[in-house]
Specification:
The protein has about 160 residues and is α+β, with helices and mostly antiparallel strands. It is about 25% helix and about 35% strand. It is flat and about 50 Å long. Belongs to the UPF0145 family.
Length: about 160
């Protein structure tokens, strides 16, 4: 499901925290976080509808571990008692996902890839107060399709 940029009214897929058109941050995302995968195609699906896959390089990973601090834990405990969302932890998750995805994209680039397919996140705790976020996908080389397939027999895919 795409989101609409309030700055330029451009549409961007939900997994991206910056607008593809004007590079403005997505509303509700952490503006201090590094923009993730700005120059790389990344999808959670096993293929692209707009590109053909030319070469598979194999799995590629990005990891990050964040420690929770006493102040963040205190505010989260208060939120747990009174109800509501914990913006402190949500900010941490956004920053962690962006960092893990940026690392994955950088590693894919070093392999010679220009895209990642089948991307997913895994979350885990390390010890009592550390959060590990791992991003994994398949590094590929993809080329844009030259024409649009309209489904008719005279127009090959």
């Amino acid at each position: 499901m795409p989101w609409t940029c309030p700055s330029c009214n451009g549409e961007t897929d939900l997994g991206y925290n910056i607008c593809w058109t004007c590079r403005a941050p997505r509303p509700g995302s952490d503006p201090r976080a590094e923009p993730a995968h700005v120059n790389m195609l990344i999808t959670t699906t096993p293929s692209f509808s707009t590109h053909s896959i030319d070469h598979y390089f194999g799995p590629v990973f990005g990891e990050t571990i964040y420690g929770a601090n006493v102040l963040r834990d205190f505010f989260a405990a208060v939120t747990d008692v009174v109800g509501g969302r914990s913006s402190q932890y949500e900010t941490l998750l956004v920053r962690g996902r962006n960092t893990a995805m940026s690392e994955m994209a950088a590693r894919a680039t070093k392999m010679g890839a220009n895209a990642v397919i089948g991307m997913r996140f895994d979350y885990s705790t390390v010890g009592n107060s550390m959060l590990m976020i791992c991003c994994i996908g398949t590094a590929v080389t993809a080329s844009p399709l030259t024409g649009k397939y309209d489904g008719s027999p005279s127009c090959p895919p």
